[in-house]
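User: Design a sequence. Structure:
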């Protein structure tokens, strides 16, 4: 089975950091967004409830923007799914430092393969996640 990682570049808005989502063949879709508009940078740090999309199609339909997509092989999908299931049982909050789309996808990928553990997920941007994905793809 393969895992797809979808990446949207940051826009010109100073409150947009780009976005990254993860999709599995079995239908699991991990897309972690702020659930309310971010009025200023303070709100990005303070956080809000999280909004999750059920699929890539739903996300593209709402945002009207297609992502770059990367296909990854040889990830432990059971560990990845188990981690995300536990994540959903915790706080469903979004914040830019500890519970952003990039942090959530990076932690899921880190469960799927040790390669992704080389970067601490204390703070990671969508662009940094995709750089790791690109490097991983070269090692497959």
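Assistant: Done.
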């Amino acid at each position: 089975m393969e895992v797809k990682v979808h990446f949207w570049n940051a826009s010109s808005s100073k409150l947009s950091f780009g976005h990254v989502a993860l999709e599995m063949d079995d239908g699991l879709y991990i897309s972690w967004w702020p659930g309310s508009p971010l009025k200023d940078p303070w709100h990005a740090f303070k956080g809000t409830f999280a909004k999750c999309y059920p699929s890539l199609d739903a996300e593209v339909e709402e945002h009207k923007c297609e992502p770059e997509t990367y296909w990854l092989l040889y990830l432990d999908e059971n560990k990845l799914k188990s981690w995300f299931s536990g994540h959903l049982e915790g706080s469903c909050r979004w914040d830019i430092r500890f519970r952003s789309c990039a942090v959530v996808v990076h932690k899921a990928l880190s469960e799927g393969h040790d390669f992704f553990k080389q970067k601490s997920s204390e703070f990671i941007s969508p662009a940094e996640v995709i750089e790791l994905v690109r490097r991983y793809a070269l090692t497959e």
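Residues 3-139 form one domain. Residues 1 and 25 are 7 Å apart (CA to CA).
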